[in-house]
Amino acid sequence: MKYDVAIISVTKDKIDPECLSSIKQLLERTQLKVKFVLVDNNSKIFDPYALARTHLPEAAVILRDKNYGFGRSCNLGAAEVEADYYFFLNPDTVVSDPLIIDHLYEFMTACPTCGIVAPQVRYPDGRFQETCRRFPKWYSPLIQRTSFLPERISAGHRRKFLMEDYQHKKYRMIDWAQGSALMIDGKLFHELGGFDKRFFMYYEDVDLCRRCWQKKRPVYYLPDVYLVHAYGKGSAVVGGLWKGLIKNSMARAHIVSWLKYSLKWMGKKI
After folding, report:
1. Are the beta carbons of 93 and 180 closer than 8 angstroms?
2. Which of 268, 269, 238, 230 is nearest to 254 (CA)?
3. How far is it, in rounded angstroms, from Cα 160 to Cα 227?
4. Taking burial as the number of CB atoms within 10 A of a residue's CB, which of 39, 55, 164, 217 is the most buried?
5. Where are the alpha helices (DSSP H) in the chain?
6. For range 100-127, the mean pLDDT
7. Other C-beta atoms within 10 Å of 191: how many?
8. pLDDT on residue 234
9. Domain 2-134+167-232: top CATH class
10. Angstrom distance (rounded) from CA 183 to CA 186
11. Cα 251 to Cα 236: distance, rounded to the nearest angstrom
12. Backbone angles phi, psi at 87, to 5 degrees
């Protein structure tokens, strides 16, 4: 069966039951044909199949034998269901508006050149989350994670990277948006080969958006609809570049992906 939208979530030892409950409400309210797909990377502390099916009996659940990373698992989930659009959604989100899929779908069908659209994302306490950004420079992580440069220079770089000059009140084209909540044209996603499987974690969303732009399919930010994301910043739990390399596996993954991304795109223009 072909669906209008397939919602893909990837888990590894954590999922918010409220996320599943909010998706259930979404499926009950939407006018679209929507399928939920959960891809689990060998979770040990809960039964992903039982939990997903308790909330969503019609969910497709894919159980993997080890952690294959975010992008590769998203690709597997998208291969499971034929859909006009794929909505990649983190398992630590809560869908505040049960019609969010309908709004994003309506935007994309009304804007056929659009490759990706991202909703506004907020923290659980209601604060705005900076999920739409400009493409990073190769040196961006060095500025963000070290104190080599004067604060005036590093703060200016962060403001530009996080688009703090944009009021985030009107929809607009952006360079890229975080993969915690992205809707992409299904045909385009398969044409691009999905997420680049070389990225285990981090930068796969930047890379995907950049490849969309290469195809002249822009990325849009739509602040009229939003969801809640309990953003953990796993790679920043241990602060600093060098401490992170030694003590934090997610920080190491972030740095490895940064190097892969920099080598892949250095000197290339959209």
Report:
1. yes
2. 238
3. 24
4. 39
5. 17-29, 48-55, 70-80, 100-110, 140-145, 151-161, 186-191, 204-214, 241-247, 249-265
6. 97
7. 12
8. 45
9. alpha beta
10. 9
11. 7
12. -115, 110
